[in-house]
Each structure stands twice: as structure tokens, then as C-alpha cells.
Amino acid sequence: MTWELPSVLLLHQLAKQEGAWTILPLLPHFAVTYSRNSSWIFFCEEETRIQIPNLLETIRRYDPSKVNITSIDMLYLYLTGMVLGKALHDEESTIIHHYAFSENPTVFKYPDFAAGWALSIPLVNKLTKRLKSESLKSDFTIDLKHEIALYIWDKGGGPPLTPVPEFCTDDVDFYCATTFHSFLPLCGKPVKKEDIFVAVKTCKKFHGDRIPIVKQTWESQASLIEYYSDYTENSIPTVDLGIPNTDRGHCGKTFAILERFLNRSRDKTAWLVIVDDDTLISISRLQHLLSCYDSGEPVFLGERYGYGLGTGGYSYITGGGGMVFSREAIRRLLASKCRCYSNDAPDDMVLGMCFSGLGIPVTHSPLFHQARPVDYPKDYLSHQVPISFHKHWNIDPVKVYFTWLAPNEEAKARQETQKGFREEL
Fold it and tell me: Boundaries of each Fringe-like glycosyltransferase domain copy (predicted)?
């Protein structure tokens, strides 16, 4: 970013490598291309709204080459590298952050990408040198904003996040340089319920406690739904696919569901959603989101994770938040020879590997969630219209559903959608 009008880059156009969305692999490119004529690299989301003059003026305060900084600490911070952003922190230790800072989760701050965040060029150069000298230590990318902040902080060897109040996710304050418009995507008429088939993965031991929760909450929203188990129970009813239950992975069961969906000659349903029996989901919000996609194209949609992206790995849709497939995506997948290496292989990762090999990218939506609401910062969820959450552990799942996802919230979601459209126009 310069003090002229900044150049605008779209990350997915910068590199064809699978891990470009994780940003760190792109830092060497930024260092070579922009370090001579820019002071900062500013990142934002598609829905982030920016007041360019306010943004430039805000960042100018942290740049010693542009203003007279008398603070030795501020000068030292800039020269050694700074990361600016709206600070998030965990309320309690959480699995999605590997229970980091378990003694005091609030102590570690990481940026809310929706508000935008910035790296100083000295920090970009410093991180580039580090990336060249040592490989990334984690194989998995789960929550990018937290993991990037951890990498930059480097166990105290690097800079912590500098909170910037002008980086905002709402527009209630006149001084905000950035805001974030949270509305449910709608690109036409919502997809009909009859065009979405929902497959619930379960097993006999969970018929008595998890399935009643589904029936008590979101089942009535689904026009087409089946429960796939290792045991036939007519009162639910469940379908026994002939695949033995496994303690983890469930790849054999998932591929059996995909085969069953595609081979129903009488049923040309456009979309398949596969969820766990402890997934909480809003089908009506999903109908809105799917209006933005063409089921005639290969679409694989949900919350994106990554595996081995620093060394040629792949992205995948994590299963707990729900995996959404277009019929065409399933057709191409099953036409290939890519299959599970065992029934208990991790289904979501195998699917990611298969689609990567087919050249079909996964499509990320932050509205799907692999974990519970309590596993995310309140500020982060406050600017979302969520589609799903996952896990019943230590929560009241019925209360969570009716608080976050129930149809009585749909009027509010529609208002936000319409508001977003009016502002876009």
C-alpha cells in the first residue's frame, strides 16, 4: 500500500498453488514486488467496506516515514515489523485453536479478517526470510486468522497484534476506516427445499440421544432427508448402508451415501448436504446461499480447512459443519477412481484430496462452523448470519439452535439480505 490510491489484488488470481488462501506462501511475492514502493500490505474480505482516505490516514499514524514519531517504542515496532487489526480473543480455550493459552485464553489477540488487517513491509520481509529458512511446522490450517497471528508472534520472538480502533465490523462509529456488511448472500430466488437432499450420518449408539435433537430442531426444514446408520430402526427411520460403523473417519459410509444419491434414477435432486448427527443447521439459510451457485457446475461447499498446504497438500471441507455437493461434483468424483483407502479414513480429507486431484476447488463459506458458538469470539459471530454449528458437548443444543439458527430468526436474516442489496445498488 502506498500513499497514492492503493493497488487492489485478488489473492485467488495471484497464484495457482492450492495454499494461496493461507497468505503466508504469498509473502515472498509481496516482498519482491512491493517492498520498494509500499509501506504496508492491507488484507480484507470480499464484504469489507473501506473508506480509503480514512484507511490511509489511520495507517499513516503507524509509519515513521510519514509522520514524526517521537515514541522510541513505536519506531522500534515499525522497524522490526508490525501487524495491525481489530483484536479478537478467545473467551475460553477451544479445540479449533488446539486449546492454546489454556490458562488465560484472553491474553492472545488475533485479527478479525472481516475488519481488515495490515502487515508492515519490514515484517513482510522478515517473515519471508523465515519462510525460506524453515518450513511451516503445522500440517493443518484450521483457523487461519489465529494461526497467522501465532506464526507472526513466534512464541514472543515476533510482534503481537497492535489493535486499531478504526478497523471496525460495524458502522456505528464515525471514525471507522473499515466496516463489514453482514448479510445472508442471495443471488436470485432461494433454492427450493425440494432441490436439497439432506443425509445425516449416524450410528445405533446415537439413535437415542442425537437423533431426537435433530427432530426437535431443524428436521422439519428439510423436505428430503434420510438418516444413514449401521442399524435399521423404523421409528426414525434409518437406512443401513451395509457399512460397519467406525469410531472415526466414516469414509466408507460417506462414499456409500454419494453412490446412493447419484444412482437414484428417479431422483435428480440438484444438491446433497451431508451432516453429522450432532450438526445444527439452518436449511432455509442454506437455500439463500445456494442461490449463488450453479448446481450444473462442480461445487463442493462448506468451511474450508487445509492439510500440508506448505508442501503441496490440499484444501478440504470439514465435515462437522456440513458438506454441500452439487450433483455434478458427485458425478465427476464417482466417475474418477479416487476412493477411500479404508472405511475409517477421514472422509472430509479424502474428499478434499480427490477433488484437488480432479482440479475442482473447494468453495469456502465462513457461515458453516465445525465447532460450537462458545468456541468462537462473540465479536466474530456478531457480524455473521450463521448456517451451521457442530457438537453438543457441554451445551444445550436445542437452545443453541433456537438462539442462532431457528426460523424465527429468518425475518432478521431477510432484512439483512435486503439491506445489503439496497446498499449494493
Answer: 190-400
Nearest partner of 297 among 326, 333, 272, judged by Cα? 326
- The arithmetic mean of pLDDT across residues 250-266, rounded, is 90
How far from chain centre, in Å, is Cα 351?
A: 17
Identical fold between 11-180 and 193-416: yes
What is the separation of C-alpha 264 from the centre of its chain, rounded to a whole number of angstroms? 32
Beta strands 300-302 and 323-326, pairing class = antiparallel
* Sequence ranges of the domains in the chain: 11-180, 193-416
Closest to 2 measured CA to CA, from 121, 112, 179: 121
- The answer to whether the beta carbons of residues 351 and 250 sit under 8 Å apart is no
Give the mean pLDDT of the chain. 90
Cα 360 to Cα 131: distance, rounded to the nearest angstrom: 28
| For residue 106, pLDDT beyond 70 | yes
DSSP states of 22-70 as a string?
A: GSGGGHHHHHHHHTTT-SEEEE--TTEEE-HHHHHHHHHTT-TTTS---
CA distance between the termini of the chain? 28
Average pLDDT over residues 135-149: 90
Threshold 0.85, pTM exceeds: yes
Residue 253 buriedness (CB in 10 A; 0-12 / 13-18 / 19+): buried
Q: Does domain 11-180 have CATH number 3.90.550?
A: yes
Residue 344 in this model has a pLDDT that exceeds 90: yes
Query: Residue 245 corresponds to which cell in the numbers above?
Result: 460403523
Phi first, then psi: give them for residue 64, nearest 5 degrees: -65, -20
Task: With beta carbons less than 8 A apart as the criterion, state whether 321 and 373 touch.
Answer: no
* Other Cβ atoms within 10 Å of 175 Cβ, number: 10
Angle, alpha carbons 160-161-164 (nearest 5°)? 150
Which residues, in sequence order, are bridge partners of residue 201? 228, 276
- Separation CA 88–CA 109 (nearest Å): 5
